[in-house]
C-alpha cells in the first residue's frame, strides 16, 4: 500500500508539472502574438517622477442627442452600426516624465491615433519654445525642452484648448479688415458620463463612450482653458480615451455639416480608409481648423470640358505650424503648398513613408532671416520616442554653383527618407547627423 501511494503521489506531481509547463507554453504563445509595446510591458521600468492629476467628477453639460451621436460616429469612423477602431478608446495624450530628456514629448503606440497625437505634439512645441514669458524666451532652448511638471500641464492644456478653439473658428481672420464680424465662436467640449443615452440596436453599436457624452459650450478661449484644465485627466490618462475626446470636441466645434462639406464626399469619413498611423486630413484639421483632404494653397477648380469645375478647398491662410510630406521619389501629388511648407514658426509635422513625426528648430527667426537658413540645427522627434538632431547646410549647392549635378544626384540616392523629406523644403541641402539618434 505504501509503494502504491508513493507511485500515485509521483504521478500527481508529474501531472501538475506537465500542466504548469503547458500553461507557461500557452502564455508564451499568446505573448508572441502581442505587439512589441504590450509584449514587454512586464519588463518596463516606469519612472517615479510622475504625478496623478486630480480626478474631478464631470458635472453639468447637455446630454448628447441621438441624431448628433449617430452623425458624429458616422462622420469620424464611417459607420455607427459597427464597432469603431478600438485603439481610439484607449489612447490618451500622455506626457513623458518631467525634467528629463524628451520631457516636451507625448508618448503613444503606433496606431491610427498617431497622426492626431503628433499634430498635438507640434502645437505643444510651439508653446514650449515660443509662447512663454519674456524671461523664459531668453533662457537656453534646451532648458525650455526639459519643462517642469507644472509647465507640462500648462502647455498641454493650452494646446488642447487652442485646437478646439481653432476648429470653432476662434482664430479666423475676416476677409475685410474694416468689417467687424458678429459671429461669436462656439467651442464644444465632449466629456463622458456613466449613463448611455442611446441603446444598442441594429442601427447603433454601443462603444461605451459616444452614447454617454455630455456637451459643454464656450464662447471665450479663457473659459475654455479653465474648463479643460479642470478635466485634463480625461484627455491625459494613459489607456484612456483622450485622443477620441479631443477629436470629437474638434469635430463638434467645427460643426457636423461643415465637416461634411470639408470632406467633399457625402459618404466620406475622417478615418475612412486611413493608413496605419492615421490620415492627412486630421493633421490639416488640427493645424488649420478645416478637415480638408487637400494640401495646396487656396481653392483649385478641377474639371474638364465635359464637367463643371468643382472647387477643391485647400489651406486658406499661412499656418503657424507647417507640414512636410515624403512618400516616395515619384509621388509629388501630396506635396503641401507654401502655406504649410513655410509656416510662421519653424515647426513641421512630418509624414515620411507612412510614419509621422515633428521637425523643429528653436530659433523663431529661422524662416524670417535668409542668413539664419544658411546653416542651422534641426531636431526630429516621434511620439514613439525616437529623437535625432541634424545640421542642415544650404550653402553646398550655392558654393558649387549647381555645376556638380552628378555628385548631388549620387548624394540624393544615398540619402535616408528623412533626409529626402528635409530636402523637400531645403532643396540640395547638405545634412549631417549629430550624435547617435535615440530610437
UniProtKB/TrEMBL annotation:
The name this protein goes by in its record: Ubiquitin carboxyl-terminal hydrolase MINDY
PANTHER family for this protein: UBIQUITIN CARBOXYL-TERMINAL HYDROLASE MINDY-4-RELATED (PTHR12473:SF8)
Segments forming domain Deubiquitinating enzyme MINDY-3/4 conserved: 73-435
Class of the enzyme per the UniProt entry, highest EC level: hydrolase
Gene symbol of the encoding locus: LOC105433792
Keyword Isomerase on entry: no
Catalytic activity: Thiol-dependent hydrolysis of ester, thioester, amide, peptide and isopeptide bonds formed by the C-terminal Gly of ubiquitin (a 76-residue protein attached to proteins as an intracellular targeting signal)
Role: Hydrolase that can remove 'Lys-48'-linked conjugated ubiquitin from proteins.
EC nos: 3.4.19.12
Family: Belongs to the MINDY deubiquitinase family. FAM188 subfamily.
Keywords: Hydrolase, Protease, Thiol protease, Ubl conjugation pathway
Coiled coil (UniProt feature): none
Highest taxon in the source lineage: Eukaryota
MF terms in GO: cysteine-type deubiquitinase activity; K48-linked deubiquitinase activity
Single Gene Ontology BP annotation: protein K48-linked deubiquitination
Amino acid at each position: 500500500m505504501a509503494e502504491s501511494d508513493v507511485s500515485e503521489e509521483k504521478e500527481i506531481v508529474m501531472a501538475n508539472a506537465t500542466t504548469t509547463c503547458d500553461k507557461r507554453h500557452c502564455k508564451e504563445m499568446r505573448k508572441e502574438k502581442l505587439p512589441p509595446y504590450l509584449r514587454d510591458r512586464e519588463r518596463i521600468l516606469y519612472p517615479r517622477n510622475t504625478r496623478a492629476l486630480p480626478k474631478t467628477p464631470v458635472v453639468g453639460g447637455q446630454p448628447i442627442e441621438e441624431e448628433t451621436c449617430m452623425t458624429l460616429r458616422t462622420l469620424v469612423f464611417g459607420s455607427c452600426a459597427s464597432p469603431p477602431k478600438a485603439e481610439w478608446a484607449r489612447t490618451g495624450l500622455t506626457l513623458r516624465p518631467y525634467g528629463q530628456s524628451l520631457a516636451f514629448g507625448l508618448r503613444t503606440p503606433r496606431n491610427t491615433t498617431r497622426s492626431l497625437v503628433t499634430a498635438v505634439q507640434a502645437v505643444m512645441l510651439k508653446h514650449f519654445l515660443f509662447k512663454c514669458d519674456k524671461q523664459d524666451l531668453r533662457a537656453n532652448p534646451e532648458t525650455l525642452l526639459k519643462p517642469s511638471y507644472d509647465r507640462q500641464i500648462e502647455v498641454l492644456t493650452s494646446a488642447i484648448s487652442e485646437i478646439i478653439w481653432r476648429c470653432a473658428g476662434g482664430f479666423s481672420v475676416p476677409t475685410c479688415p474694416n468689417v467687424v464680424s458678429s459671429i461669436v465662436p462656439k467651442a464644444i467640449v465632449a466629456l463622458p458620463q456613466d449613463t448611455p443615452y442611446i441603446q444598442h440596436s441594429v442601427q447603433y453599436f454601443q462603444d461605451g463612450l459616444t452614447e454617454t457624452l455630455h456637451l459643454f459650450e464656450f464662447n471665450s478661449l479663457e473659459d475654455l482653458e479653465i474648463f479643460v484644465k479642470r478635466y485634463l485627466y480625461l484627455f491625459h490618462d494613459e489607456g484612456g480615451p483622450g485622443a477620441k475626446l479631443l477629436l470629437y470636441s474638434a469635430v463638434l466645434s467645427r460643426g457636423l455639416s461643415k465637416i461634411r462639406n470639408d470632406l467633399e464626399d457625402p459618404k466620406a469619413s475622417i478615418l475612412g480608409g486611413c493608413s496605419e498611423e492615421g490620415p492627412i486630413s486630421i493633421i490639416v484639421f488640427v493645424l488649420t481648423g478645416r478637415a480638408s483632404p487637400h494640401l495646396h494653397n487656396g481653392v483649385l477648380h478641377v474639371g474638364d470640358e465635359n464637367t463643371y469645375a468643382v472647387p477643391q478647398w485647400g489651406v486658406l491662410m499661412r499656418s503657424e505650424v507647417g507640414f512636410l510630406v515624403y512618400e516616395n521619389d515619384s509621388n509629388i501629388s501630396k506635396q503641401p503648398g507654401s502655406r504649410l511648407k513655410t509656416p510662421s514658426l519653424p515647426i513641421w509635422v512630418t509624414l515620411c513613408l507612412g510614419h509621422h513625426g515633428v521637425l523643429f528648430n528653436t530659433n523663431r527667426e529661422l524662416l524670417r532671416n535668409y542668413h539664419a537658413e544658411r546653416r542651422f540645427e534641426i531636431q526630429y522627434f516621434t511620439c514613439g520616442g525616437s529623437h535625432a538632431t541634424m545640421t542642415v547646410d544650404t550653402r553646398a549647392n550655392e558654393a558649387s554653383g549647381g555645376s556638380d549635378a552628378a555628385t548631388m544626384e549620387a548624394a540624393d540616392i544615398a540619402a535616408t527618407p528623412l533626409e529626402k523629406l528635409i530636402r523637400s523644403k531645403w532643396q540640395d541641402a547638405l545634412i549631417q547627423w549629430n550624435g547617435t539618434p535615440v530610437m
